[in-house]
Description:
By secondary structure, the chain is mostly helical.
Amino acid sequence: MRRSAASVQALQGWLLLLPAAVLLVLFTHYPAVAALWHSFFSTPKGERPARFIGVAHYQDMANDPVFWASLVNNLWYAAGTILPSIALAMGMALWVNDRLPGRGALRLAFFTPTVLPMIAVANIWLFFYTPDYGLLDQVRSWFGGAPHNWLGSRETVLGCLMVVSVWKESGFYMIFYLAALQQMSPDLREAAALEGASRWQFFRRVTFPLLMPTTLFVLVNAVINAFRLVDHIVVMTRGGPDNASSILLYYIYETGFKFWDSGYAAALTMVLLALLAFIAFAQFALLERRTHYQ
């Protein structure tokens, strides 16, 4: 009887997991395996079917200057958005967690950019960056600054896109930090105050270590977002000027849907997946030991 009851419970558990497992296989595992398979074939065109070409796409990739430019841009983009957005989110959460007047409105103001569609955000920031007439150049003109083509200059275009992403994503990450802060016992702060600890010492020795599980979760999401955001690039720069703002996902989009080279796009996709997998494993290897869940 015990074995049959345990079997029924196990069956019920698997049945409950079945819908999520089916969706995971259909929309995550199958596309990844299909992309790997298609990366070894040429792109079918007209009456010419796809043929097996082995690692030819990957060999072409090694000699593709646009791929390397997009990869370097993406790494700079990730470095310029991940840590600033996490630090800003943590700072905002610490601020709105205190008992200050109007903190509900402040939380709403910080979270509002998150609920806006990325296309709308891109159009808002296009107005800010418009040469001569944009808000940024209008402010610069008050101090005698000359107009500047922010999105048309190789030196500033990637930094401008980073600012948009940090502004958009920080409010989303703030919610997780705020939830974690509200789960902390107030007794910890009282005990630290009795010991004479300053606010900075309490944050460094107590708050920050207890926020490590949340930081690990937010960091994984921030890395994924840094390599998957492409909407604002399509609207604001289209990878220009001279591929200075092209990142890997945008290059994949162009290759697959503009140049109709699905085989090469599949190979680029596999490189992106491998890069994300490597970064994820490195994150867990480095941070898991320093993460305390109690």
